[in-house]
Design a protein that fits this description.
single chain, 15% strand, alpha+beta, Beta-Lactamase, 9 helices
Length: 237
């Protein structure tokens, strides 16, 4: 019964994600939906997504919590860790026990354990020969993902890749670059808006993001547009 229920939820998630791939869809909203669905469906404590710009510079573009975002930022700062390796190799990278990575990624080990994560699973965002980022799943317990979960994670990562590049952008590099840059610029605005809300409401960054996202969803607005309005003070939440 649990398996059937999860399969139904996974199918519903794919329908939801597919429905967003229409004219005028916003990449950041799509990716926010995807990381939250990934964490819920794949029994992860948190999920995040890193994305490369046209120069190959990686940024955290979506995350379900400040905990996972901090671990990803640390990896990007030093250029080392499972999420970065996943992007560089285009292969799934699994850390079944963070405590046992030894001297390979000491900074990652320290940061992950500090945030309470004991295993990490990174899945590349790739379409044919193009790798543009990685979907990262963080768990509070040690262990590997089941084959079923790995297949589901790959499928979710594929949806994200298609959503960013879209079919026609494989042949239109300028369009692809604009999509990627738009996503990166939107993330900057969202982080700024989170800071404004955290400061004005005296809440943490996770609560600030939930306020931002809930307002956008309840009013049928794009997350980027709400963030921009908060930053320029034309909207007070």
């Amino acid at each position: 019964m649990v398996s059937t229920t999860r399969e139904a939820r996974l199918a519903a998630t794919f329908v939801t994600l597919a429905d967003t791939l229409v004219a005028g869809y916003d990449v950041v909203d799509l990716l926010d939906t995807l990381v939250n669905a990934s964490a819920e469906l794949l029994d992860a404590a948190a999920a995040g997504l890193i994305l490369a710009d046209e120069a190959g510079e990686l940024s955290v573009i979506a995350s379900t919590s400040e905990r996972s975002r901090l671990v990803e930022i640390m990896q990007l700062r030093f250029g080392l860790g499972p999420c970065v390796e996943c992007y560089k190799t285009g292969r799934v990278v699994t850390v079944a026990d963070v405590d046992e990575v030894g001297d390979k990624w000491p900074d990652f080990r320290e940061a992950a354990l500090e945030q309470g994560f004991h295993s990490v699973h990174a899945v590349p965002l790739r379409l044919r020969g193009t790798v543009i980022g990685a979907l990262n799943l963080f768990r509070n317990q040690t262990g590997v993902m089941s084959d079923e979960d790995i297949l589901a994670a790959r499928a979710l990562a594929d949806i994200a890749t298609i959503g960013i590049l879209h079919e026609r952008t494989l042949h239109e590099s300028d369009t692809a670059k604009r999509q990627l840059q738009h996503a990166l610029d939107s993330r900057v605005l969202i982080e700024q808006a989170k800071g404004v809300l955290a400061h004005t409401h005296l809440v943490d960054m996770d609560e600030a993001f939930r306020t931002l996202r809930d307002y956008a969803r309840s009013n049928g607005l794009l997350l980027r547009n709400v963030a921009e309005a908060v930053v320029n003070r034309s909207l007070v939440l």
